[in-house]
Amino acid sequence: MSSSTVPHSDPAVPAAPSVRRSRLAWWKLLVTGAVGAAVVNLIVLAVAKLADASLVIVDGGTEHPITVGGVIGASVVPLVVGTGAAFLMALWKPVFLRIAQFVGGGLALLSTAGPLSSGADGGTVAALSLMHITLGVAVVTTLQLHRRHR
Fold this sequence. Notes:
mainly alpha, two-stranded antiparallel ribbon, 5 helices
């Protein structure tokens, strides 16, 4: 009495779909971080102007007005250079992404000492300090997004 059924001959179970992460290109992250930081800092600048902050820093007797171009340049260049360097170093050792998060965030916080010691009016000091902190948040967030989507 033989049986013609084969044990465990159930229909094939479909394989579980592979988990796909959306892979964000490094250059897209750099552009997004830089544009995001610049936009937020321009909003801070506009609010400071509306609040009648002088937006002038006096250094060595010379007045340096805070302009839209200056805000964009000071927001984009450090983020692109620092974060781009971290992306390149992470190709060698991925731990550099985490290190760069601490260094970038720390440098942004330390750089607030400049506006705080500038002797400018309160609105200008508050606006510049917030711009420095915004840049630090943008650096840390950009690097975190890259770490997650690797």
